[in-house]
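re: the backbone from monday

yeah here it is again, tokenized this time
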């Protein structure tokens, strides 16, 4: 047996028959780590190999590895494999046998969206105009859809031309296409110290190098960005000026002007991710309005309607219109017209505004519960369904993630968003998964109780 076979030879002893198969695989992995059968640095089998031996789909194993990485159990390295991570001194002897409370996944709280969409889609199916939606359409989307959506996204600060707006399969699709346009394998991309985990995934798949830029309480620091531009010669910048993920920070107008000026000075292609701008009754000034000839502006209905409603928008500089149409042709042909039709009907009926009001109200209520449990969390003008929780000095983020997991609660480990090796001293807490505010209140109390104790004491009773 070769050394490579030894490192990759792990197989779970037993998979629970209860719950989703991917969670059963993650729980089995955590049990074997806790029992000492796997150690820090051990490499796990390739997705396809483990799937074949266990009789699972490759997608199930991939989802399990992704979940394990979000929990801080493993780390993946492009071209090398997936490895067991050090658990920062906390060893959980009791792994939850049921599906845990997932405060690691950012999602809206359940609301009226199912009832509204059910009625709306029922009307479409019963009407004579269903047939046209089932035909081939332009790669960029139906023109009427683009006109109405562009108008709904426009305001006094930023007017979006329908000819430059493209419908995509969610924001992730938009990010992927933009990176294909403005970067090639091996290029460097400027990002915040902590950045959106989905962007990290696309960058890794595209073989791009992420260059971390220092952040403060507003987000990316202009002087640090300037220094990074001078040092690396990178020509692409990705940022979330509004409700940054994972820290929920929002840039002031002055900071946005500084970032846009630096983009002009260093000829940067700007990728502006504004998927959470809808939480503000009046959208903060987009970078795209300050640097329209270099900014790729991204929004998503998946964040404000439902995660499974995979419709996003990408507004591009005029010089890139033809290239984006080609990429849409190559990657998706066109987005399912039913989704565009649903959005324009939601807009026309006023139901979309109704959903937005519900999202803002629910997010505010849940964020207030977070502030009650943890007064040190930053107060933000328009809360989303997540917050950035500072940790006491004696706690590392890995320790807290492990301690919460031992109590059946998942929170986002820093490795999901970190670009450089550094202890952030905080973790993201997502607030949308608990069924109601009462359940969220109870879960937050458990997290508060964990932090009242020293991590050594928590480890001793885990």
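seq for it, each position gets an aa:
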């Amino acid at each position: 047996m070769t050394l490579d076979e030894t490192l990759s030879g792990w197989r779970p002893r037993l998979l629970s028959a209860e719950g989703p198969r991917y969670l059963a695989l993650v729980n089995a992995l955590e049990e074997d780590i806790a029992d000492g059968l796997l150690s820090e640095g051990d490499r796990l089998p390739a997705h396809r190999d483990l799937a074949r031996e266990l009789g699972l789909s490759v997608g199930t194993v991939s989802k399990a590895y992704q979940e394990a990485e979000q929990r801080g159990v493993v780390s993946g390295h492009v071209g090398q494999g997936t490895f067991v991570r050090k658990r920062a001194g906390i060893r959980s002897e009791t792994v939850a046998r049921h599906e845990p409370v997932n405060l690691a996944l950012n999602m809206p709280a359940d609301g009226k969206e199912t009832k509204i969409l059910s009625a709306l889609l029922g009307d479409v199916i019963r009407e004579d105009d269903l047939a046209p939606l089932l035909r081939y359409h332009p790669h960029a989307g139906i023109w009427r859809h683009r006109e109405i959506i562009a108008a709904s996204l426009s305001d006094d600060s930023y007017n979006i031309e329908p000819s430059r707006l493209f419908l995509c399969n969610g924001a992730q699709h938009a990010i992927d296409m933009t990176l294909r346009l403005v970067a090639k394998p091996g290029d460097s991309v400027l990002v915040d110290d902590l950045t959106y985990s989905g962007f990290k995934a696309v960058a890794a798949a595209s073989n791009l190098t992420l260059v971390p830029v220092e952040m403060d309480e507003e987000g990316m620091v202009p002087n640090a960005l300037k220094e990074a531009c001078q040092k690396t010669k990178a020509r692409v910048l990705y940022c979330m000026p509004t409700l940054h993920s994972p820290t929920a920070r929002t840039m002031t107008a002055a900071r946005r002007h500084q970032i846009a000026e630096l983009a002009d000075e260093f000829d940067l292609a700007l990728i502006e991710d504004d998927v959470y701008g809808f939480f503000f009754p009046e959208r903060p000034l987009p970078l795209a309005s300050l640097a329209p000839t270099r900014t790729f502006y991204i929004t998503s209905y998946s964040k404000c309607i439902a995660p499974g409603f995979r419709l996003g928008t990408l507004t591009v500089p005029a010089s890139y219109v033809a290239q984006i149409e080609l990429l849409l042709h190559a990657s998706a042909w066109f987005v399912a017209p039913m989704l565009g039709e649903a959005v324009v009907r939601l807009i026309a009926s006023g139901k979309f505004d109704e959903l937005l009001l519900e999202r803002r109200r629910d997010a505010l209520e849940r964020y207030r519960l977070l502030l009650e449990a943890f007064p040190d969390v930053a107060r933000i003008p328009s809360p989303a369904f997540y917050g950035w929780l500072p940790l006491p000095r004696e706690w590392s983020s890995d320790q807290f993630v492990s301690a919460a997991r031992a109590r059946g609660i998942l929170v986002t480990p820093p490795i999901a968003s970190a670009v450089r090796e550094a202890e952030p001293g905080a973790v993201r807490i997502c607030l949308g998964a608990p069924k109601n505010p009462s359940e969220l209140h109870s879960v937050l109390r458990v997290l508060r109780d964990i932090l009242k104790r020293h991590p050594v004491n928590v480890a001793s009773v885990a």
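The two ends are 37 Å apart (CA to CA). The first strand starts at residue 74 and ends at 77.
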